[in-house]
Request: fold
Amino acid sequence: MHLRHALCYTELNGGKPISPIFNKYKGISVVKKKLTVEELAAKENCDPKDYVSTKECILYGAADLFGGGQAAFLSVILLAFFTNIIGIEAAIASTIIMISKIWDAVSDPAMGLISENSRFRLGRRKPFMILGGILIPFGLAFLFAPIQNMEEPSKITWMVFAYIIYCTISTISQVPYMSMSSDISMDYRQRNKANTWKLIFDIIAAGLLYLIPSLMWNKVVGENATISYTTFYYIIVFGFGLLFAIPLIVAGLTVKERTPYQEEKKVKFSIKEYFKGLTVKSYIWHILMYVTAFLTMDLISAVAIYYTDYIGGTINGVKVNLGFMEMDMGSIMIIAPMMVCAAIGIVIAYVIKAKYSKQAAFRAGLPLYIIGAILLACYQPDWNPILIPVFAAIMGFGFAGAQSMPWLVFADTVDVAELKLGYRPTANMSGVMTFTRKIATALGTGMVGWVLSAAHYVKPVYDPETGKNILQQQPESVLLAIRLLIAISVTVLLTIGFIASIKYKVTNKRLERIRYFVSKRNESGEESFTEEEMAEYLELKKKLC
Reply:
């Protein structure tokens, strides 16, 4: 009976073998047909060669645990690590970060060119994702090495080289990986599907890597420290290092690059060509949306530890009554509610995206972000400390769309660039995006340290008997500087991002027409356009390019 039914279903399938999956019902085995790529693509209304399976989307998205996680992790603790653990002056620490991030930014064009001209069996992007993944734990081991007992000049020299090396490792993997957001498919809906998974993992990574370091920090630094630095170091190298490395390596081995390229054609580096994407109007607005959103979070993260230590009251043993439990004040009181509310806000942002547009979802919460930051800056020591997580929660709702939309928008912007330029400068455009963010982060983080030093920040004092770094009371000038860094930077940056999102005019309907015109132009030239098509084509270029 089983064999006869299997043969019958095989005949119905045109003689082709059917996946041997059986559903038993009343003693009769029925073979369940496994859909082919062509059938799956037809269900999603795309060309089979552009179809991306859910499994591949997940593997691709998981690789962003490094991109989203390490940025969050370093923005929370790196400056404070330099000043409060290694014992470097705030201005010098900021300068080290700035120099390293500028190198990080400058190396992006070189990595983009290397990736674009590579012709490996695995593809142009994936070999570098694998190599970068392998090197990540070694970079973290060097960067967070326990050098507290070195002399000041030796500390500074070590940290400059360590952070430059770490940034280089990040560049090796991240520039090619970001290019994959466009190269994974030529169909914008399939790209959206893949990049949505990338966004999900980015949010997971950001949530974990904003929260865990914030939660651990007060257990490593201060009079009440309970975790030795050696333990903290091993967690960073073997915990975070492997969390970042393994998904990148797996994605490099499994994910497909689908955007076609000419094997024999190599790109020569040209500064003019590298920044040519900036001649596309939509790309400029896109970069402003991206940089302002992420730089705002970088600055909030960098200031969070100093804020809760000295304004929130960690130094005075302030505790926060959450109703069901009491917790020590710490940067977790800003980061945790932001992340939780951002996760809820993501759902709202996606509803807005589906009903209106990605840029509408981007800007919807920005007023809340600004209001929450101003309230946080105005907080006074005699207020109930529960207000700090409440204000941070307000920021979190505003944070969701601003952080989630820019990389979903990227592949759309590449389509617009192709409409204008006649080719897809994917690597250059992703390189310029990361370049601008890194330069902005370098200057922004540098500003934090310089402002704190100018306000006469007093770094912790190391107690050799207990092996702990003891926080010191700060002058009023430092407290005012921290408040102004939060209020002014958030308000100015997000106002710029809000305006840019209004100026960005790319919609799904226009993307459909862009693909139509680009395909027709590539096949038979602009002369093949009808009079109506030519008018629409020129209008699209005028509005978007």
Notes: The mean pLDDT is 84. The chain has 20 helices and six strands.
